[in-house]
Write a structure and sequence with these properties.
The complex is a heterodimer of chains A (640) and B (105). Chain A has 640 residues and is mainly alpha-helical. Chain A contains 26 helices and four strands. Chain A has a two-stranded antiparallel sheet with strand order 1-2. A two-stranded antiparallel ribbon of chain A has the order 3-4. In chain A, helix 3 packs antiparallel against helix 20 and helix 4 packs antiparallel against helix 5. Chain B starts with 6 loop residues before the first helix and ends in a 13-residue tail after the last helix. Chain B has 105 residues and is mostly helical. Classes of the chains: A mainly alpha (640), B mainly alpha (105).
C-alpha cells in the first residue's frame, strides 16, 4: 500500500486554479486561461486515476475488504475534547470512484468548453468558476467527516449558482440561479439540523467511526426519541432532505429544469454528472447508519426515488426543449439510484442495491454528460433549444449523431452498453425487495427509452428543417470529449463493480437473472420502436395521442403544475398570510417606535440647538450669569 | 489716614471694576479690548487681595504676594495674548472674535 497523503492535492489544485484564473481574469488572454484550466484539470484527473489504480488494484496480497483510509487529517476547530471539526481526505471505494467520475467529466467539460464557450465574454470567469466547482465537489466526496462535507456541499451550491446565472444579463438565467440556490439552500437547512442531531447523539462528525457497523451508534442506538421516532431516525430523515434537495428529488426538484439556463457544459458537469448525485453519494456514505439505524428512512428513500423517476419520466415525454428533456431524464435516473439505495441490504450478498446504485451513478455520469455535451453541440450548430425546430441533423453532425445514438442506447438499457448492466442490477435489487417499485422502474425503463428516442428521432431524423445557416460539425475540442465519453459509455460495464464498490468492502457475488434481463430489454426495445413509429417520419399518431389524452398531456407538459403550486404556497400563503402581517408589524410597530424616539430627539435638539452657537462670548455670558445666580442663591441661603 | 477709609469702599471700587471688566469681556468684539477687560478683572481681584490683607491681617504678607503674583501672571498672559492677536491679525486681517471662526466649520 503506498502513501496516499498526496491526495490532498486533488482538491487543492482546482482551488489554486480558481484563485489564479479568478484573479488574473481580464488581465490574461482568455484562451490562455482556458488552457491553464484544462491542463490543471488534466493533472487532477491524472492524479485521481493514479489513486484509483493504486487503491483498487495495488493492494497488499491477502487483503479482503477495502479499507477506509484517512491519509490526511488536520483538526480545524476544537469544539469539545471529543467533538472537533477536521479537514482531511477519506479514501474508500465510493470516494475513489467519485474521484474518477468527477475528474473525468470535469476534464471533458473543460476541454469541451474551449470550443463551446469560445469568444464568449467572461471566458476566464467561466473557467475560474468551473475550477471552484471542481474543488468543492472533490472536497465533498473526499470529506472524512460530515462537517467538511457540509461546507463543500454549500460551496457546490454557490458555484452552481454562479454557473447557472453565468449569463447574468439574461433575467431567466439570473432567476434560475436564484431558484436553484434558494431551493437547495432550503433543503440544506434540513441537512444542517440533521448533522447537529447526529453529532449530538454520536459525539463525532467522523464518517469512519459513525458508520462502523460494530460502532456504538449502530449497536446501541440512542435512547433519545422525539414524537415516537428515535433521534437517529429524525437525523437521518433530515439529512436525506438535504440530499433530496441537491439531487432534485420530488418535491424539491423544481430548480433542476430551470437550471438549464446555464451554459450547456455546466449542465453537463453540474446538473447531470456530479452535483446532482451528491445526494445519492450522501446516502451511500451514511448507508450503514441508514440500514441499521433507520430502515424506515431507507424505505422513504426508495419510494421518493421511485416516484421521482416515474414522475420525471412522464414529464420528459412531452417537453420540447432538448435540455429540459435531459434534465427530467437526469431526475428520473437519479431516482433510480436513490431507489437502489433504498431497497439495498448491507453486507454478505444483500448489498446488490448499493453496488447497483454506485454502478449506475458511474455509467449515468458518463452517458448523461455525453448527452448534454451532444445537446450542446446540437445547440451550437442550430442555435435553438427547441427540438421542433430541428430535424434531419444526422447529415450535418455525423460525430455528434453517432455519439448521441450511443448515449441514447446506453440510457435505454440496450445491451451491450453500460447502462443496460447498471439498470439491470437496480431492477434486480428492486425485484428482490419490493415488487411494486420493481414494476414502476420497469415501466420507467420503457418510458426512458421512448423519450430518449423521441428526442433522437426528432433531432437527427424526421423532417428536414430549413436552417438559416447550414449546420456544421463542431470543432475537435468539442467532438473529442464526445468520443471519449461515448467510448466510456460503451465499455464501463467492464469495470468489475461488484468486486470493487460494495456496501461492506467485500466482494459481492451476483448472477444474471434472466427473468429480469429479458423483460427489461424488451421494454426498452418497445420504447424505441414506439418512438421510431411516432417520430422517425412525420406522423399523425403523436398529435392524435395528444388530443386523446388532452388533460394528461396538458398536466404533463406543465410539469404537473409543480412550479405553480410552489408559487401558490409561497406567494399566496406564506408571503400574504404570514410574511405580510409580520412585515406590517415590523414596519408599523417595531420600526415606528424607534422612529418615534428618533423624531422626538430630533425635535428636541432642533429647538435647543440655538444655544450651541459656537460664540465664545455668549457662552461666557451664560457662564457668568450662572455664577452670579449661584452666588446670590448661596448668599440668600446662608444669610437668611 | 488710611484707616479713615472703610474697607467697604475698596470693595465697592473693586466690584465696580470687576463688573466693568465682565461687561467688556462679554460685549466687546475686538480682541484687544477683551484683553483689556480681562486685565480689569485681574486688577479688581488685586485690589481685593491687598485691601483684605491690609485690613484683616496687617501682620501678614500673603495678600501682597498674591497681588504681585497675579501681576506677573497677567504680564505673561498679556504677552502671549498679544502675540496670538498679532498672528490672528496676520492671518485674517482683523481681530474681530466673531469673524475668526475657521475652526468652527
Amino acid at each position: 500500500m503506498i502513501d496516499f497523503s498526496f491526495t490532498i492535492l486533488i482538491p487543492l489544485l482546482p482551488l489554486l486554479l480558481f484563485f489564479v484564473l479568478g484573479l488574473t481574469s481580464g488581465k490574461m488572454k482568455p484562451v490562455l486561461s482556458g488552457y491553464i484550466g484544462t491542463l490543471g484539470m488534466f493533472a487532477t484527473a491524472a492524479m485521481s486515476y493514479f489513486v484509483a489504480f493504486q487503491y483498487f488494484f495495488n493492494r497488499p496480497a491477502g487483503a479482503e475488504a477495502f479499507e477506509k483510509i484517512v491519509p490526511f487529517n488536520t483538526v480545524w476547530l476544537n469544539l469539545t475534547d471529543k467533538l472537533h471539526i477536521d479537514l482531511g481526505v477519506l479514501l474508500d471505494p465510493i470516494s475513489v470512484m467519485m474521484l474518477v467520475v468527477i475528474t473525468t467529466v470535469s476534464l471533458m467539460v473543460h476541454l469541451y468548453s474551449m470550443g463551446y464557450m469560445k469568444g464568449e465574454t467572461g471566458y476566464s470567469r467561466f473557467y475560474a468558476f468551473l475550477s471552484l466547482f471542481s474543488f468543492s465537489m472533490l472536497g465533498l466526496v473526499l470529506a472524512p467527516n460530515i462537517f467538511q462535507m457540509y461546507i463543500c456541499w454549500e460551496l457546490v451550491g454557490v458555484s452552481s449558482y454562479l454557473l447557472i446565472s453565468f449569463y447574468y444579463e439574461k433575467p431567466a438565467a439570473v432567476s434560475a440561479g436564484k431558484k436553484a440556490f434558494i431551493v437547495t439552500r432550503f433543503a440544506d437547512l434540513g441537512f444542517l439540523i440533521g448533522i447537529l442531531i447526529l453529532s449530538y447523539i454520536s459525539g463525532t462528525f467522523d464518517f469512519v467511526s459513525m458508520t462502523d457497523p460494530q460502532g456504538a451508534l449502530i449497536t446501541q442506538g440512542t435512547p433519545l426519541t422525539f414524537m415516537g421516532l428515535s433521534a437517529l431516525t429524525w437525523a437521518l430523515a433530515l439529512i436525506f432532505v438535504g440530499g433530496a434537495g441537491k439531487s432534485a428529488m420530488f418535491p424539491l426538484h423544481i430548480w433542476l429544469p430551470d437550471a438549464m439556463e446555464g451554459p450547456t457544459p455546466v449542465s453537463a458537469l453540474i446538473h447531470a454528472a456530479t452535483m446532482v448525485v451528491a445526494g445519492v453519494y450522501l446516502v451511500a456514505r451514511l448507508f450503514p447508519l441508514y440500514y441499521f439505524g433507520a430502515p424506515d428512512v431507507l424505505t422513504i428513500v426508495a419510494y421518493t426515488g421511485g416516484f421521482t423517476s416515474l414522475f420525471a419520466a412522464i414529464i420528459a415525454c412531452v417537453q420540447t426543449d432538448i435540455k429540459r428533456v435531459l434534465a427530467f431524464s437526469t431526475m428520473s435516473q437519479i431516482g433510480y439510484m436513490m431507489l437502489a439505495l433504498g431497497v439495498s441490504g448491507y453486507g454478505e450478498n444483500h448489498g446488490l442495491g448499493f453496488t447497483a446504485s454506485m454502478f449506475h451513478l458511474f455509467t449515468h455520469a458518463m452517458f448523461k454528460a455525453l448527452l448534454f455535451l451532444g445537446a450542446g453541440a446540437i445547440i451550437h450548430a442550430v442555435h435553438t433549444n427547441n427540438m421542433n425546430e430541428m430535424g434531419g441533423l444526422r447529415k450535418y453532425l455525423p460525430i455528434t449523431h453517432i455519439t448521441f445514438l450511443i448515449a441514447c442506447l446506453t440510457i435505454s438499457g440496450i445491451p451491450p452498453f453500460s447502462g443496460f448492466f447498471s439498470k439491470d442490477e437496480i431492477l434486480a435489487a428492486a425485484f428482490e425487495n419490493n415488487k411494486i417499485l420493481f414494476f414502476v422502474e420497469w415501466a420507467v425503463a420503457g418510458i426512458t427509452a421512448f423519450y430518449m428516442f423521441r428526442l433522437y428521432f426528432n433531432v437527427f431524423w424526421g423532417k428536414n428543417t430549413n436552417y438559416k445557416h447550414t449546420p456544421h460539425e463542431s470543432p475537435l475540442t468539442m467532438t473529442l470529449p464526445l468520443m471519449i465519453l461515448a467510448f466510456a459509455s460503451m465499455v464501463s460495464e467492464l469495470i468489475p463493480f461488484s468486486k470493487l464498490v460494495t456496501s461492506d468492502g467485500l466482494v459481492l457475488h451476483i448472477q444474471t437473472e434472466w427473468i429480469i434481463v429479458i423483460p427489461s430489454v424488451l421494454v426498452g426495445a418497445t420504447g424505441i420502436v414506439l418512438a421510431w413509429l411516432f417520430y422517425k417520419k412525420e406522423s399523425a399518431i403523436p398529435d392524435k395521442l395528444v388530443t386523446t389524452f388532452a388533460t394528461t398531456y396538458k398536466w404533463s407538459f406543465n410539469k404537473f403544475y409543480m412550479d405553480e403550486l410552489y408559487l401558490f404556497i409561497t406567494k399566496k400563503i406564506i408571503f400574504k398570510r404570514i410574511s405580510q402581517p409580520i412585515a406590517w408589524f415590523d414596519r408599523n410597530v417595531v420600526d415606528a417606535s424607534m422612529n418615534g424616539i428618533a423624531w422626538v430627539t430630533n425635535k428636541m435638539s432642533d429647538s435647543i440647538k440655538g444655544l450651541q452657537s459656537g460664540q465664545l462670548q455668549k457662552y461666557g455670558y451664560v457662564f457668568i450669569s450662572g455664577v452670579i445666580i449661584l452666588a446670590f442663591t448661596f448668599v440668600y441661603v446662608w444669610f437668611k | 489716614m488710611l484707616s479713615q477709609i472703610p474697607l467697604s469702599y475698596f470693595l465697592i471700587v473693586s466690584t465696580l471694576m470687576f463688573f466693568i471688566g465682565v461687561y467688556g469681556f462679554l460685549t466687546r468684539k475686538n480682541l484687544i479690548t477683551i484683553l483689556m477687560s480681562v486685565e480689569l478683572i485681574l486688577n479688581s481681584v488685586n485690589i481685593n487681595f491687598v485691601a483684605f490683607n491690609r485690613y484683616l491681617y496687617p501682620e501678614q504678607l500673603q495678600g501682597h504676594f498674591f497681588a504681585l503674583f497675579v501681576i506677573a501672571v497677567a504680564a505673561a498672559e498679556a504677552a502671549v495674548a498679544i502675540a496670538i492677536i498679532i498672528s490672528v491679525y496676520r492671518k485674517f486681517m482683523n481681530i474681530d472674535v466673531e469673524r475668526v471662526d475657521t475652526m468652527k466649520h
